[in-house]
């Protein structure tokens, strides 16, 4: 599948790139950090056989605009996502969200009135505390890391992304995830999004998880070393009716590590909560 995001959505802080694939009931896929919608390419291709699949790169990520001075925080991304749903004319789509995308989907729903037929959360950033030692180190010294020589920066990002997988990432997939973070625009953008990450954006909504009334399912890589599965148990316990599904042999990048089981779970999720086409 040739991954391309031909559409544009203009925000005050820059252009967001997105794509619509297939036809049928709408499903929206959200990526996390430091990834892009590229992480969904195989899942999106499969779902597009009988669904209208929407994908987008968060502002400052992937193929979306990267520039100095952008607000790329979870606060901004949640607002942008709610606006995108309006732009797409989607009143109650199914939403599948990974990592930071989970926090974006939760904030859009709880703070900005975005309605979903149902929500699937894959290894989301949603429960405190979060942030690995590496993440916190870079966050505290983002301006220093931003000045790394390009080859050292790329090596750092490559190893960081690779560590999100348990069985390993195919070289061409790793290249697709790392390349947007290189070069004159990509390198500072990588550290910008880390510098603006702040647990307060999930602290704001965590007390409200008990108010969620839409169907929610939580999926977690059993071998996730970035966010331990115990966080998944905590999150599923906080959301009424939510169930937790552990995926054996998968790390944090569960949709890449175990695409077959993840697709089975997503399709089961879509069947069990059919919702309504807007």
UniProtKB/TrEMBL annotation:
SUPFAM superfamilies: alpha/beta-Hydrolases
InterPro entries: AB_hydrolase_1, AB_hydrolase_fold, Carboxylesterase_BioH
Superkingdom of this protein's organism: Bacteria
Domain annotation AB hydrolase-1: ranges: 26-259
Signal peptide: none
Name of this chain's protein: Pimeloyl-ACP methyl ester carboxylesterase
Biological source species: Lentzea atacamensis
